[in-house]
Design a protein that fits this description.
This protein has 416 residues and is of the alpha/beta class. The chain is built from 13 helices and 14 strands.
């Protein structure tokens, strides 16, 4: 019965307008494994500049920490089909490090050279609802806040008092405000504009950016690097973040839209997404098929991407902890796949394409192309690329993630 349902579903796909393209492009999908599911729903000095300490071992070392299968936590699907597998996402018995295993739970022992290479002044923007903060806050402190002695800014609906007290003087400023339709319209000055709860994360990022810049203005300095952080998605020690490559002004280092950082001027362009969301995605470019695309930056991002360039056998964990760059459209130059078409367009001088119907991404999903709409994960990437920025992986040192109280391995983690 299950097989009959799957066959009928595949036949329905082929009858859809995108179906023939979907079928014909199965072998060209560069992402190898397609993941379409969603997840279940110390104090510091005044300016965060101080002595950096190599972190001590966790007293819980001996207990170990259970490593989850990414495919169990975040169900993935086989390439070219929407059918869950019983083994790993490619139908093989999983032998990758993401299989269930024990990992030593020790806090990061970071070399002095890595600590000395930290940015002089770094701000972490902790945004969104404070989900799972009790289970994650220690990992956040040890992996991200303490190594480079970062300052912290928070934008959320409600900041729990115990969390505020725990952050102490590291927390420089915060804003508590709800995310609702009225908030959207006030920012956009557009009554009747569309509203979608997933966009709230970008409203919170914008608010956190504003309280950070107010703090900068008050104290007459600017941060060198800014990192967007969530409470339910943190780097898990012994992994850590020291912002390798932070001096590169045109790079944004990301783990999809959940965690990302950049040098301050680049992050400012990312933080401008929400104030411009309605004007850009609804008014200026209502048709996602003809929306502008920086071909040079997309090509550069794909050539650097950890997941896109990995061998198929290394992709069994899916792309959830990386980028979804293969969802982005590209100019159709009559060739096979995104990279060849992008390279051909760039060779002909089409560095930025606008007003021409683009080819559906190598992972072509029709609901990513809704007129007058912002599709969070895909369109976030396109916004960043169109700010003349290259997207890189979060970083090689961020090879373990604690998400929703589960620990997941990013075996493909790399520096830009």
């Amino acid at each position: 019965m299950k097989r009959v349902v799957v066959v009928l579903f595949e036949l329905w796909l082929l009858k859809m307008p995108f179906g023939s393209k979907l079928a014909s492009r199965q072998e060209s999908w560069s992402s190898g494994v397609i993941s379409v599911a969603r997840l279940p729903t110390q104090s510091s000095p005044a300016h965060g500049i101080g002595e950096r300490q190599t972190l001590a071992s966790d007293p819980l070392d001996a207990q170990g920490l259970e490593m989850e299968k990414v495919e169990d936590f975040y169900p993935c699907f086989r390439k070219g089909h929407f059918m869950p597998t019983d083994q790993d996402v490619c139908g093989r018995t999983s032998t990758k490090p993401t299989s269930v295993r024990k990992v030593k739970r020790s806090f990061a022992k970071i070399t002095k050279a890595s600590l000395d290479a930290c940015p002089p002044k770094t701000a972490v923007l902790l945004t969104g609802l404070m989900r799972d903060w009790e289970a994650h806050v220690e990992s956040l402190e040890k992996s991200t806040l303490e190594p480079c002695n970062t300052d912290l800014f928070v934008a959320t609906d409600t900041l729990p008092s115990p969390l505020k007290e725990r952050f102490g003087t590291r927390l420089k400023s915060y804003v508590e405000a709800p995310c609702d339709e009225i908030s959207f319209h006030q920012v956009w000055n557009a009554t009747g504009a569309p509203f979608a709860p997933p966009w709230c994360q970008w409203l919170h990022v914008s608010r956190a950016w504003n309280v950070m810049t107010d703090f900068e203005d008050k104290h007459a300095f600017k941060y060198d690097v800014v990192f967007r952080q969530r409470s339910d998605m943190v780097i898990q020690p012994p992994a850590y973040m020291t912002f390798v490559g932070w001096n590169e002004a045109d790079k944004v280092h990301m783990m999809t839209d959940m965690l990302f950082w950049a040098k301050r001027p680049a992050f400012e362009k990312v933080a401008a997404l929400f104030p411009n969301l309605h004007k850009y995605f609804v008014v200026k470019y209502p048709d996602p098929w003809t929306r502008e695309l920086n071909a040079v930056r997309l090509l550069d991002s794909l050539n650097r991407d950890a997941f896109f360039n990995a061998q198929d056998q290394d992709k069994s964990a899916g792309w959830y902890l990386y980028q979804k760059l293969t969802t982005l459209p590209y100019p159709d130059m009559g060739l096979f796949g995104a990279v060849k078409n992008l390279q051909a367009a760039v060779n002909k001088g089409a560095t930025v394409v606008v007003g021409t119907r683009l080819h559906c991404g190598d992972w072509c999903y029709p609901v990513d192309y809704i007129p007058k709409w912002f599709v969070t994960e895909k369109d976030t990437l396109q916004w960043i690329i169109n700010q003349d920025l290259t997207i890189c992986d979060l970083g090689a040192s961020a090879h373990l993630i604690k998400a929703k109280q589960h620990v997941l391995a990013r075996t493909l983690a790399k520096d830009c």
